[in-house]
Design goal:
Shape: elongated
CATH architecture of the largest domain: Orthogonal Bundle
Number of domains: 2
Radius of gyration: 19 Å
CATH topology of the largest domain: Endonuclease III, domain 1
Number of strands: 0
Helix content: 55-70%
Order of helices and strands: HHHHHHHHHHHHH
Number of helices: 13
Mean pLDDT: 91
Low-confidence stretches: none
Distance between the termini: 35 Å
CATH superfamily of the largest domain: Hypothetical protein, domain 2
Strand content: under 5%
Oligomer: single chain
Largest sheet: none
CATH class of the largest domain: Mainly Alpha
Length: 229
């Protein structure tokens, strides 16, 4: 496997460290994967809506209103049954997303005959769909190998692999995307991305209070540095 092309400043990942990382994350993930209903979702439009609602809100809140989301099958349901959308946004406190979802639904109907596009470039052109949501749909909906770059996966890359982005927002760093894509395994990468999200939320947390019990600590760049302080 070829290492990522990550720009002018040299940054390399030891292949043995990558193998160790994949092995340990898999071991942890098999026992700790969170059971969210959207992780079994086969309806691509509903998966897209879920990812939009998950941004800047609590996963448990979305889990509680998921029966409402299950009433939506296509963008036509949004346009023809606006009351369902009203109910969802009122329950979540995300009323500002209503207009975006209406515009997005109209775009899909007008430009794609009501079918969710199956490529990143078309997805990212939809209202309210940025890099993260487009990649999440490609990874979890279409099961393509895509880098899911969010606060949790960024923290893991920075802590374990020791990569520090020079960007004000690390999620805007092209190299971060390439590193996360490169560290994904060659098989079962969809569920592995779920493992990463859960590991970053539950273990590799910003306070670093769980470092001493982390399964990655033996080769973690942050842990090694912290021990010498």
């Amino acid at each position: 496997m070829t290492e990522p092309n990550i720009g002018q400043k040299p940054f390399s990942i030891d292949p043995s460290k990558r193998r160790y990382f994949i092995k340990k994350i898999r071991e942890w993930g098999k026992s700790n994967l969170k059971n969210y209903p959207w992780r079994e979702e086969k309806n691509l439009f509903r998966l897209l809506l879920t990812e939009i609602f998950l941004q800047k809100t609590d996963s448990l809140k979305i889990k509680n209103i998921y029966p409402l989301l299950k009433q939506i099958e296509t963008p036509f349901d949004i346009l023809n049954r606006e009351d369902i959308l009203d109910h969802i946004v009122s329950r979540t406190g995300l009323s500002y997303k209503k207009g975006r979802i209406l515009r997005l639904s109209r775009q899909i109907v007008d430009s794609f005959n009501g079918k969710l596009p199956g490529n990143y470039s078309d997805l990212v052109r939809l209202t309210g769909v940025g890099d993260y949501i487009a990649n999440a749909v490609m990874a979890f909906g279409y099961e393509e190998k895509a880098a899911v770059v969010d606060t949790n996966t960024i923290r893991i890359v920075q802590s374990f692999f020791g990569y520090c982005s020079s960007k004000k927002r690390a999620r805007d760093d092209r190299r971060m995307n390439e590193i996360i894509l490169w560290i994904l395994p060659c098989r079962q990468y969809t569920v592995f991305s779920y493992y990463l999200l859960d590991f970053g939320a539950d273990v590799c947390v910003s306070s670093k209070r769980l470092c001493h019990e982390c399964v990655l600590k033996r080769k973690c760049a942050y842990y090694e540095t912290a021990k010498t302080r």
